[in-house]
Design brief:
5-stranded mixed sheet, alpha+beta, single chain, 7% strand, Haem_peroxidase_sf_animal, signal, 761 residues, oxidoreductase, Haem_peroxidase_animal
């Protein structure tokens, strides 16, 4: 491609709204494509200079006789992706880490389109500011046709295309489309997160609150998130206390299912839109860079001119409104997408199609004493290689790109890969006439049901305590009117478990004795070589079952391994996860603490005394008031995290409300929910209720003793039993005949005799 030309070809133009009277010409990164529209043209080209693969998106206004617009041209840089940098060998450790938070495939296309749409509207507004007094929404000044043209040129129109659904579908789609037949996109991947409350941005559109220092909200400026982390989240390591009632597996399951529900990737841009400023090495506050400023007297970072790098979450196409929303790259359903993927291309890559066994692909280089590992990613460079260059072990490939971030998480992914293949082999033995597709889909369906049962029967009651029944009452069947989409606020609320992560990782032997010294958490990120080279997944799973989670209290919130040392080995400066969470809530335009208390029907403290009553801690309330000035401004993550636990739970009332509401919507708005009549037969449901996470571990590892109640704190040998005492899943209810399958298709009916059971439901 040649350089972008300084002049544009003549185009037919139609006037913008009378207030502007401008015509637009815009250029896109799409090579070789040119469109001519009544007032809009798309033209190809590279950005000039030494920007390499960087492309340029421009808006040109020409209005003879209208002073503000006689001649104006605004361009933004649309940087090449981190993947392209890796391919060109122009990479840094930071970029390797960023790669795993980048949108890919269909997600990347959706995010690029949203970036172009948002950028065009922002550039238009910038120029219209000189002609229009006061605050205004640029989309209000454009006709539907003009908005449609911008949408088409940017690619956002692809989000509005009609989805054709198979009315005889018996299985979920990989993307989550067609779950709701009335609105097929509800809960699908690559769609905007839903908002339960209107967004609150500094400019009412997209600029995060706290962007403009000293700008006041409810009479007070927002505090630096690193300062909040230092003064409220930080605690001396000697005060660390473990949870005497919850196992480490309780924490790990929360992270595992969170990666089944939401993923808001970073925007693809690695440099600012208005110049070649790299977000990872510069502290300039220019979109998409929203760096975390270092406060005075920081306990670790002495250079207050430095910052913690932060890139804004990728936007979503918003159907003509200028208000920024964020994309959920994965399905909203609890469907095992972290195992199978949320895009068809990835799902196909993860499968083994060399036979008719319906298997997932496994590692061809290593095994865990004969048991499978996940396949390696085909990346030549990855954070996992950096973690130990001598080991030369790359990252694994899974249904979710975050599978390699923590060792225990990688073990959970490996466990469920093995369980799928175990189910597939047994189903094939029961039904040799099934082809590979049928076996794969049935095993996937069963695995999804297992995840749902473990979550709602075993995990959520221990998380929500006495509030569980009120928030998630007994299942009444599928409700097409329930919106199952993940809410924007849930992506922050479900980060509560960051406060349950201990500072070290253990490995335990067959006798549940320590294997070597504890590993500092900072040395476990992307360290998958330890799994392959140091004993497989069993030692880590034993630790998850026999060790306790960290106890989250108001006096000890997040360990310094996450607050100061996160990704230290591949970042120029260790991340602060607590500060990142608060910065992310501002990035997403989430309202403050009191707004969410009101949403949940809880009291809204107005001052120090009322806040002290809610938190049951006057000293903590005083710290909040000194930092924020008013409870209204408290960032949702830290405010909700600071509340005392509900009875029998591990979150406060606000967090319980947000999490419980989301999980009820996920269940009731899922047509393929395991209890929904017709999804499984009554006999199959009877079999499914016997499953447990302990049984899955027994069936897929060499571990012979497991706890009956895996999410409760257990001290080996107390609470542990032989695997022979743990009920097995009886798959005979899935034994089928060709006649029965024909009946399922409406041809005829002949009931297959299956063993009787009583499931007590």
């Amino acid at each position: 491609m040649g350089n972008l030309r300084d002049s544009f070809p003549a185009t037919r133009t139609a006037p913008l709204p009378s207030v502007a009277g401008a015509a637009l010409v815009s250029s896109s990164y799409h090579a070789g494509r040119q469109m001519t529209l009544p007032w809009f043209a798309v033209q190809t080209g590279d950005a000039p200079g030494e920007l390499g693969c960087l492309a340029r998106w421009c808006v040109t206004c020409r209005t003879p006789g209208f002073a503000p617009f006689q001649s104006c041209r605004c361009c933004v840089i649309l940087p090449c992706s981190i993947k392209e940098h890796l391919q060109n060998d122009a990479f840094t450790p930071v970029e390797l880490l960023r790669y795993f938070k980048q949108p890919v495939a269909g997600t990347r296309a959706a995010v690029r389109a949203a970036d172009y749409m948002e950028t065009t509207l922002a550039l238009l507004k910038e120029k219209l500011q000189r002609a229009v007094r006061g605050n205004f929404n640029v989309t209000d000044l454009l006709t539907p046709d003009q908005l449609g043209m911008i949408s088409k040129a940017s690619g956002c129109d692809q989000q509005d295309k009609k989805i054709n659904c198979d009315t005889s579908d018996g299985y979920r789609t990989i993307t989550g489309e067609c779950n709701n037949r009335r609105n097929p996109s509800l809960g699908a991947s690559n769609r905007a997160l839903v908002r339960w409350l209107p967004a609150e941005y500094e400019d009412g559109v997209s600029v995060p609150r706290g962007w403009t220092e000293e700008k006041r909200f409810s009479g007070f400026p927002f505090p630096l998130v690193r300062k909040v982390s230092n003064e409220i989240v930080r605690f001396p390591p000697g005060q660390l206390r473990m949870d005497q009632q919850r196992s480490l597996m309780f924490m790990q399951w929360g992270q595992f299912i969170d990666h089944d529900l939401d993923f808001s990737p970073d925007t693809p841009a690695r440099v600012t839109f208005t110049g070649n400023v790299d977000c990872d090495i510069s502290c300039a506050k220019q979109p998409p860079c929203f760096p975390i400023k270092i406060p005075l007297n920081d306990p670790r970072i002495k250079n207050t001119k430095d910052c913690l790098p932060f890139t804004r979450s990728a936007p979503a196409c918003t159907g003509g409104t200028a208000i920024r929303d964020q994309i959920n790259a994965i399905t909203s359903f609890l469907d095992g997408s972290m195992v199978y993927g949320s895009e068809v291309s990835l799902a196909n890559t993860l499968r083994n199609r060399t036979s008719q066994l319906g298997l997932l692909a496994v590692n061809q280089n290593f095994t865990d004493r004969g048991k499978a590992y996940m396949p390696f990613s085909n990346m030549q460079k990855s954070p996992c290689l950096i973690a130990n260059k001598e080991a030369k072990i790359p990252c694994f490939l899974a249904g979710d790109s975050r599978a390699n971030e923590m060792l225990e998480l990688t073990c959970m992914h490996t466990l469920f890969l093995r369980e799928h293949n175990r189910l597939a082999r047994q189903l094939k033995r029961l039904n040799p006439h099934w082809n590979g597709e049928k076996v794969y889909q049935e095993a996937r369906k069963i695995l999804g049901a297992m995840i749902q049962i473990i979550t709602y029967r075993d995990y959520l009651p221990l998380l929500l305590g006495t509030s569980f029944q009120g928030l998630i009452p007994r299942y009444q069947g599928y409700n097409e009117s329930v919106d199952p989409r993940i809410s924007n606020v849930f992506t922050l609320a479900f980060r509560f478990a960051h406060a349950s992560v201990p500072p070290t990782v253990d490995r335990l032997s067959q006798s549940y004795k320590p294997m070597g010294p504890k590993i500092q958490l900072r040395n476990t990120f992307f360290a998958v070589w330890r799994i392959i080279k140091e004993g497989g997944i069993d030692p880590f799973l034993r630790s998850l079952m026999a060790n306790q989670a960290k106890l989250m209290t108001q006096q000890q919130m997040v360990v310094d391994e996450l607050r100061d040392r996160m990704f230290e080995q591949v970042e120029r400066i260790g991340f602060d996860l607590a500060a990142l969470n608060m910065q992310r809530s501002r990035d997403h335009g989430l309202p403050g603490y009191n707004s969410w208390r009101q949403f949940c029907g809880l009291s809204q403290p107005s001052g120090l005394q009322a806040l002290a009553g809610v938190l049951k801690n006057p000293n903590l309330a005083k710290k909040f008031m000194q930092l924020y000035g008013t409870p209204k401004n408290i960032d949702i993550w830290i405010g909700a995290l600071a509340e005392p636990f509900v009875n029998g739970g591990r979150v406060g009332p606000l967090m319980a409300c947000l999490i419980g509401t989301q999980f009820r919507n996920i269940r009731d708005g899922d047509r393929f929910w395991w209890e929904n009549p017709g999804v499984f037969t009554p006999l199959q449901r009877c079999s499914l209720v016997k499953i447990s996470l302990s049984r899955i571990i027994c069936d897929n590892t060499d571990i012979s003793k497991v706890p009956r109640h895996i999410f409760k704190a257990n001290r080996y040998p107390c609470g542990f039993v032989s695997c022979s005492k743990i009920p097995k899943l009886d798959l005979r209810a899935w034994k089928s005949t060709r006649t029965k399958e024909a009946a399922e298709q409406g041809i005829s009916f002949k009931q297959q005799v299956a063993p009787a059971c009583s499931c007590g439901r």
